């Protein structure tokens, strides 16, 4: 699931993605994934937890009409899974 957030004052656009850790891993930029991404997610899954991952993409200041024309795959391309937006880091502390 993805959501586009527009700041109406600055016209800054952000994309936030939530999904299974496997799906987010496929679309996330590999250099933004934590080194223990699979290990942490699989450990939680083995304990019976449903593991979700979060990712973010900063589109910057962009015309919302241009964003409306973009396909989902294009919006989600190269999202980041930095530690600041990584639910696994919160759960494994």
- Structural class of the secondary structure composition? alpha+beta
Low-confidence stretches: 83-93
> What oligomeric state do the depicted chains represent?
single chain
Quickly count the domains.
1
Keywords: ATP-binding, Magnesium, Metal-binding, Nucleotide-binding, Translocase
Main location: membrane
GO molecular function, one term: ATPase-coupled monoatomic cation transmembrane transporter activity
Membrane topology: Multi-pass membrane protein
Description:
It is found in: Membrane. InterPro entries: ATPase_P-typ_cyto_dom_N, P-type_TPase_V. Its main location: membrane. This protein has 93 residues and is an alpha+beta fold. It has one domain. Helix content is 35%, strand content 26%. The chain is built from 5 helices and 3 strands, in the order ββααβααα. It has helices at residues 21-27, 37-46, 64-69, 72-76, 87-91, and strands at residues 2-6, 12-20, 52-61. A 3-stranded antiparallel β-sheet has the order 1-2-3. The longest helix has 10 residues, at 37-46. 19% of the residues are buried.
